[in-house]
Amino acid sequence: LDSHYGTYVWPCAVVLAQYLWVHRRNLPGKRVLEVGAGVSLPGVVAAKCGAEVVLSDGEELPRCLQSCRRSCLANRLPHIPVLGLTWGRVSPELLALPPVDIILGSDVFFDPKDFEDILITIYFLLEKNPHAQFWTTYQVRSADWSIEALLCKWKLKSILIPLHSFSADKEHLASSSLPGRHTIEMMIISLAQSDGT
């Protein structure tokens, strides 16, 4: 694989794209930001379903940002903005983001050293957009890796979404054999309520 992870369609992207497709009737007019977008499959699907999409990947990863742009052009979506955002860093680009309803992230919980930086960024975005949600898929790579303590620390809550609830528990999902060979989970993360939930 390329050393820049964002130049490859990962199984989690296919699963998240399936979730978006199943919920496509709710997407027109929604403001969507994809973080760690890479080849941007979920963001492209959201845009094709009528959402107003902004794609982002690490500002220090020009090849990943170029991959986002290529995906947009290949799918006749040249108007989609592509921004460099680095997890855990409050940058002018992050501050200038328009309001969002949905944040997408497929397989962003890849390396435990990045988990808190990702959640810092998500927390910042959810504080700015209290009614927004972070829709994320991740591959279970180790039973020892968990974000539960970090969710509590950053006052976030999560709901696990069963794959069968959106027909993503199939061996060959959307004609792709990728998801069937991996243990993939989906969750929706939002701000915890003031009552501690």
UniProtKB/TrEMBL annotation:
Function: Histone methyltransferase that dimethylates histone H3 at 'Arg-17', forming asymmetric dimethylarginine (H3R17me2a), leading to activate transcription via chromatin remodeling. Maternal factor involved in epigenetic chromatin reprogramming of the paternal genome in the zygote: mediates H3R17me2a, promoting histone H3.3 incorporation in the male pronucleus, leading to TET3 recruitment and subsequent DNA demethylation.
GO MF, any single term: protein-arginine omega-N asymmetric methyltransferase activity
Gene name of this polypeptide: Mettl23
Pfam family, any one: Methyltransf_16
Location of the protein in the cell: Cytoplasm; Nucleus
UniProt keyword Nucleotide-binding present: no
Family: Belongs to the methyltransferase superfamily. METTL23 family.
Key words of the record: Chromatin regulator, Cytoplasm, Developmental protein, Methyltransferase, Nucleus, S-adenosyl-L-methionine, Transferase
Protein name from the UniProt record: Histone-arginine methyltransferase METTL23
Residue stretches spanning the membrane: none
Reaction catalysed by this enzyme: L-arginyl-[protein] + 2 S-adenosyl-L-methionine = N(omega),N(omega)-dimethyl-L-arginyl-[protein] + 2 S-adenosyl-L-homocysteine + 2 H(+)
BP GO annotations: chromatin organization; methylation; regulation of gene expression
Assembly and binders: Interacts with HSPA5, HSP90B1, TUBULIN, UGGT1 and UGGT2. Interacts with TET3. Interacts with STPG4.
PANTHER family: HEPATOCELLULAR CARCINOMA-ASSOCIATED ANTIGEN, HISTONE-ARGININE METHYLTRANSFERASE METTL23
Organism: Chroicocephalus maculipennis
GO CC annotations, alphabetized: cytoplasm; nucleus
Principal location: cytoplasm
